[in-house]
């Protein structure tokens, strides 16, 4: 299959396909006499796996390590381990994001609780003093 057809079937730009090929993620079946790339039929599936893995947070290096040379050579235990590690990474990120969100919401409440008659500079000083007290 030529790169144009592969791009149409995968929904990816030809430049992206060439990039993945250059990074060693996509195997080129062969080159035709005219120099055109000829990709195997499973290239669409491989591109979908790469794209899905990237959306799940895997780096190209991680994907390269996990992609098999063929369907018969999937490294079952390594793949499960990598997936479980990525899930743990996502859960840790969720926890950090939740803490950050809570801190920001607290800051919004603190800033929003500006006493009547207090100007912005005084309110900023009040907020900074309160934040300083929290850090101790």
Quick rundown:
With 136 residues, the chain is mainly α.
Structure description:
With 136 residues, the protein is mainly alpha-helical. The protein has a domain at 3-74: Multidrug-efflux Transporter Regulator, Chain: A, Domain 2. It is 66% helix and 3% strand. It is built from six helices and two strands; from the N terminus they run H-H-E-E-H-H-H-H. It has helices at residues 3-10, 14-22, 43-55, 60-66, 76-112, 120-135; strands at residues 30-31, 37-38. The mean pLDDT is 89.
Number of helices: 6
Mean pLDDT: 89
Distance between the termini: 65 Å
Structural class estimated from helices and strands:
mainly alpha
CATH architecture of the domain at 3-74: Orthogonal Bundle
In the CATH scheme, the class of the domain at 3-74 would be Mainly Alpha
How do the SSEs run, as a string of H and E?
A: HHEEHHHH
SSE topology:
Layout: H1 3-10, H2 14-22, E1 30-31, E2 37-38, H3 43-55, H4 60-66, H5 76-112, H6 120-135
Antiparallel strand pairs: 1-2
List keywords for this structure.
two-stranded antiparallel sheet, mainly alpha, 66% helix, 6 helices, Multidrug-efflux Transporter Regulator, Chain: A, Domain 2, 3% strand, 136 residues
């Amino acid at each position: 299959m030529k790169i144009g057809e592969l791009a149409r079937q995968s929904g990816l730009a030809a430049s992206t396909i060439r990039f993945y090929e250059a990074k060693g993620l996509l195997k080129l079946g062969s080159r035709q006499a005219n120099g055109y790339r000829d990709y195997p039929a499973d290239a669409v599936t491989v591109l979908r796996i790469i794209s899905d893995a990237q959306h799940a947070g895997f780096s190209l290096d991680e994907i390269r390590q996990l992609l098999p040379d063929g369907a018969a050579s999937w490294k079952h235990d390594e793949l499960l381990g990598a997936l479980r590690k990525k899930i743990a990474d996502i859960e840790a990120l969720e926890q950090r994001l939740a803490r950050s969100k809570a801190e920001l919401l607290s800051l919004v409440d603190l800033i929003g609780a500006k006493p009547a008659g207090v100007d912005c500079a005084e309110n900023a000083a009040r907020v900074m003093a309160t934040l300083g007290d929290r850090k101790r």
